[in-house]
Design goal:
single chain, mainly alpha, 10 helices, elongated
Length: about 210
């Protein structure tokens, strides 16, 4: 569970930071070619993670990403970032442009406008993408199985799967592990449920 927590929280933090910055840029700071760049991000949703496993495994194996926590963290973050960026961009578009303009007129740079005005207002969307990224990494089996071959570094999904074999079945351990693995996602949903609905609704409204 500690391995899963490290990988899931690490990937969620990356997703929140990257998606918030990219979403703000796409929504409030348009530049030549920004629509084409956003279209590339949208196209990223249609790429199944399974099709990128082999090339990413080969690339990360050359730089020490296989057998290290940061390898699957980057994999999970990359898989969740396109959808999260779209959600954040749509959320920022729903906020008035006058907020940015008034902040710039008062002498604040875009950095202060982003951190002191936009981020507090976008808390529902930030919590939403953070929780979704956390749940996606926590429940995944394939990436954890391939990129963390060391038994001591297994995530809980891989650990539960390893209890089942063709010749034996530890049903009591499997059920216990499944119950334990369900506690953090349920706790996260209960803690942030008031943000999730409003964040998803605002993020897909445009």
């Amino acid at each position: 569970m500690l391995n899963s927590a490290l990988v899931s929280i690490g990937s969620a933090v990356i997703v929140v930071v990257v998606s918030a910055l990219a979403g703000f840029g796409f929504a409030k700071l348009p530049y030549p070619g920004s629509k084409a760049a956003f279209a590339v991000v949208v196209a990223g949703i249609s790429v199944p993670v399974a099709t990128t496993i082999l090339p990413n495994y080969l690339n990360l194996s050359h730089v020490g990403g296989v057998g290290s926590y940061w390898g699957p963290i980057l994999m999970y973050a990359a898989g969740a970032t396109p959808f999260s960026t779209i959600l954040m961009a749509n959320f920022f578009r729903s906020l008035p442009d006058e907020l940015v303009e008034s902040g710039i007129a008062d002498g604040a740079g875009y950095g202060r406008v982003f951190t002191e005005i936009m981020l507090p207002l976008s808390m529902p969307a930030l919590v939403t993408i953070g929780v979704l990224a956390f749940l996606g990494a926590w429940n995944d089996l394939l990436i954890g199985l391939l990129f963390l071959p060391d038994p001591d570094m297994r995530t809980i999904s891989v650990g539960i799967a390893s209890l089942e074999s063709v010749r034996s079945s530890n049903l009591d351990l499997v059920l216990t592990g499944s119950l334990l693995s369900a506690i953090p996602p349920i706790a996260a949903f209960i803690a942030f449920q008031r943000y999730l609905v409003s964040g998803i609704t605002a993020g897909i409204s445009k």
